[in-house]
């Protein structure tokens, strides 16, 4: 799509996180947008975050703060693993997770399974500072289609799976279920690791609890971890799971040694000390995760996750 050079700056672009809580960006200029078969995708230019991708009214990623999300999502599980050779990304059409995985010196293949080719096309065209050429790396294999079908039918096996997904409402909710995690475990090699986001302990506590319970129903090792993501406006919870690999068993010194040996000493966020800081849990988060929660099964829905279109419109009054 051609740039919207004639588009004047938008005073505010807002996202409502729930009925009572949200965030907004000011002075955004719309560069491009498309309505695909699946969703509405927009690219904005913003003074603080640079280029920003928004999907269906939700801020997804930006060039200047993506490392807050992609580094811990990829490198905490990857560093705990003895040496990732083959990885699968489900979602992640912006290319940020792929760029981080392709930094690993042992990596020989990354399969990116994205249902919406327009996300990839828009990212390639407008977010080069985020994907950093990952789509042109010969080790990247792009698979456009339903990840559930791919995972259920592929004979391939992986050392790492990254579930870089939109929020769990609508069809995406199926990718947060016990059945989906069971399918993912089937294609992981022994010691393989999987990572995903579980929502926010601030306004998505039910989701956190139920997704955590779903992982624990499938994997013997589940380690939630926390990171503040500026573009998401709140504290965010991720998790990694495995049949054998436990990131909590590694010291900060060992993490730094592995990063140095793998040529990854210049990450913007992740290091040995941060590894343990990410895994540390405030008491209120421990309480959320200790509470009895029912695992999420196919056909069920999370009560605290809403399609943004179903929430009241945002009205901003300045003065």
Give your account of this protein's structure.
Strands 8-7-6-9-10-12-11 form a seven-stranded mixed β-sheet. Strands 1-2-3-4-5 form a five-stranded antiparallel β-sheet. It is built from ten helices and twelve strands. The protein is of the alpha/beta class and 319 residues long. The protein starts with 9 loop residues before the first strand and ends in a 29-residue tail after the last helix. 28% of the residues lie in helices and 30% in strands. The longest helix has 14 residues, at 67-80. The radius of gyration is 19 Å and the shape is globular.
Q: Strands, helices and their partners?
A:
Elements: E1 10-18, E2 21-35, E3 40-46, E4 50-55, E5 58-62, H1 67-80, E6 86-91, H2 96-101, E7 109-114, H3 117-126, H4 128-131, E8 140-144, H5 147-153, E9 158-164, H6 178-186, E10 188-199, H7 205-216, E11 221-229, E12 234-242, H8 252-261, H9 272-279, H10 283-290
Parallel strand pairs: 6-7, 6-9, 7-8, 9-10
Antiparallel strand pairs: 1-2, 2-3, 3-4, 4-5, 10-12, 11-12
Helix pairs in contact: 8-9
Distance between the termini: 36 Å
Series of H and E elements = EEEEEHEHEHHEHEHEHEEHHH
Shape: globular
How many DSSP E strands?
12
Please state roughly what percent of the residues sit in beta strands, choosing from under 5%, 5-15%, 15-25%, 25-35%, 35-45% or over 45%: 25-35%
Which blocks of ≥5 consecutive residues have pLDDT under 50?
Answer: none
């Amino acid at each position: 799509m051609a740039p919207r050079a004639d588009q004047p700056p938008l005073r505010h672009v807002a996202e409502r996180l729930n009925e009572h809580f949200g965030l907004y960006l000011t002075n955004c200029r719309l560069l491009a947008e498309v309505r695909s078969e699946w969703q509405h995708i927009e690219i904005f230019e913003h003074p603080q975050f640079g280029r920003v991708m928004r999907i269906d009214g939700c801020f997804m990623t930006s060039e200047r703060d993506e490392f807050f999300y992609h580094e811990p999502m990829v490198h905490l599980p990857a560093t705990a693993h003895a040496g990732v050779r083959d990885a699968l990304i489900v979602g992640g059409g912006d290319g940020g997770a792929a760029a981080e995985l392709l930094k690993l010196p042992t990596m020989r293949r990354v399969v990116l399974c994205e249902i919406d080719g327009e996300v990839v096309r828009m990212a390639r065209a407008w977010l080069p500072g985020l994907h950093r050429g990952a789509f042109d790396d010969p080790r990247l294999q792009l698979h456009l289609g339903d990840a559930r079908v791919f995972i259920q039918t592929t004979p391939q096996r992986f050392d790492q799976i990254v579930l870089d997904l939109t929020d769990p409402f609508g069809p995406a909710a199926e990718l947060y279920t016990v059945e989906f995690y069971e399918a993912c475990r089937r294609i992981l090699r022994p010691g393989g690791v999987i990572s995903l986001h579980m929502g926010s302990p601030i306004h998505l506590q039910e989701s956190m609890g139920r997704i955590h319970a779903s992982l624990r129903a499938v994997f013997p090792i589940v380690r939630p971890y926390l990171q503040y993501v500026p573009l998401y406006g709140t504290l965010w919870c991720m998790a990694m799971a495995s049949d054998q690999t436990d990131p909590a068993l590694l010291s900060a010194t060992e993490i730094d040694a592995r990063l140095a040996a793998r040529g990854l000493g210049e990450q913007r966020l992740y290091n040995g000390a941060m590894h343990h800081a990410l895994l540390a849990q405030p008491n209120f988060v421990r309480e959320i995760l200790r509470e009895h929660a029912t695992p999420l099964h196919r056909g069920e829905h999370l009560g605290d996750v809403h399609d943004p279109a179903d929430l009241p419109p945002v009205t901003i009054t300045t003065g």
